[in-house]
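Exercise 7.
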Amino acid sequence: MQATATPSAMGGKRLLSSEEVEGTNVYGTDGKKIGSIDHLMIERVQGQVVYAVVDFGGFLGMGESHYPVPWSTLHYDLQLDGYRTNVTKDQLKNAPEFNDGSYADREWETRTHANYGTDPYWTKPSINR
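Solution. The predicted structure, written as tokens, is:
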């Protein structure tokens, strides 16, 4: 059973510094560690975290790589003290290539969200784009 990350369960903290998120472990659906958060990508105007760049160090036989995954694919699990995701090896293999300039391209973002089966952040009401 996954513990819910409520502010009271987290010592009353509603906000986190990015420094507290970076380095946090990421676990697969089976509860095994598959990587850690390297850094976050934030939508500039609204200030919303939209991607976590995850360091999948040797995940399922793949070499150490950084993959931006939609923030919505990560869910904090109090028992693991880390984020749980259902991202699969195939999704990582098929993810659009990532480099320092790729995330500035809306087409890249559209392909990324399609790959992970998530709704693009800019289609949600909180982001007026």
